[in-house]
Amino acid sequence: MGVDPIYKACAQEVGRKLVAHKYDLVYGGGSVGLMGVVADEVLSLKGQVTGVITEKLHAWEVGHAGLTQLHIVNTMHERKALMAQLSDGFIALPGGIGTLEEITEVYTWLQLGYHHKPCSFLNVAGYYDAFIALLDQMVTQGFLDAKSRNLIIIESNIDDLLAKMSLNN
User: Fold this and answer.
1) Domain-embedded: residue 63
2) How many domains does one find in the chain?
3) I want to staple 161 with a disulfide (CB 3.0 to 4.6 A). Which of 6, 41, 121, 155 is the partner?
4) What does DSSP assign to residue 91?
């Protein structure tokens, strides 16, 4: 959940906003962490939640038992591919290395033209400021072009983020 209670509050708000905008949630299928909070909030408001989890994680009993639909796959590669296929856009909340790995992978796929779905960071309380600075440094040092840098959407509140993702039209 992180050390600051603002992260959990934000995750609950994300769940509320997804349901208010009539969006379904597709995520990694867990019952723990901020995404578990988002899933719980969506479900409590009668929204639809699809989870995609590996057999290994499911065996560890971290899978969410109350989802609308749960896909159990063999590998993390299958998990990420199915989540990407089922999703219309991607939002990274504050999280750990897995969160960063997943969002940068779909961001890379966007950059390469494998999909045209919006990719975004919800920069709660400046959580992603250092990563944003790294992206900007990649541009100034010639490792990332400005056009690719600008493909990623970064906002500090969910309303502005959804508006920029053009998902709330």
Assistant:
1) yes
2) 1
3) 155
4) E
**Residues 74 and 54: beta-carbon distance below 8 Å:** yes
Per residue of the chain (169 residues), what is the pLDDT tens digit? 899 999 999 999 999 999 999 999 999 999 999 999 999 999 999 999 999 999 999 888 788 999 999 999 999 999 999 999 999 999 999 999 999 999 999 999 999 999 999 999 999 999 999 999 999 999 999 999 999 999 999 999 999 999 999 854 4
CATH of the domain at 91: 3.40.50.450
Residue 161 backbone dihedrals phi, psi, to 5 degrees: -65, -50
| DSSP at 140 | H
Query: Is 48 contained in some domain?
Result: yes
Report the alpha-carbon distance of residue 28 to residue 63 in Å, rounded: 9
Q: How far is CA 123 from CA 1, 14, 45, 55, 153, in A?
A: 15, 12, 24, 31, 10
How is residue 37 written in tokens?
A: 């909070």
Does a structural domain hold residue 168?
no
Question: The domain containing residue 142 runs over which residues?
Answer: 5-163
100 lies in a domain?
Answer: yes
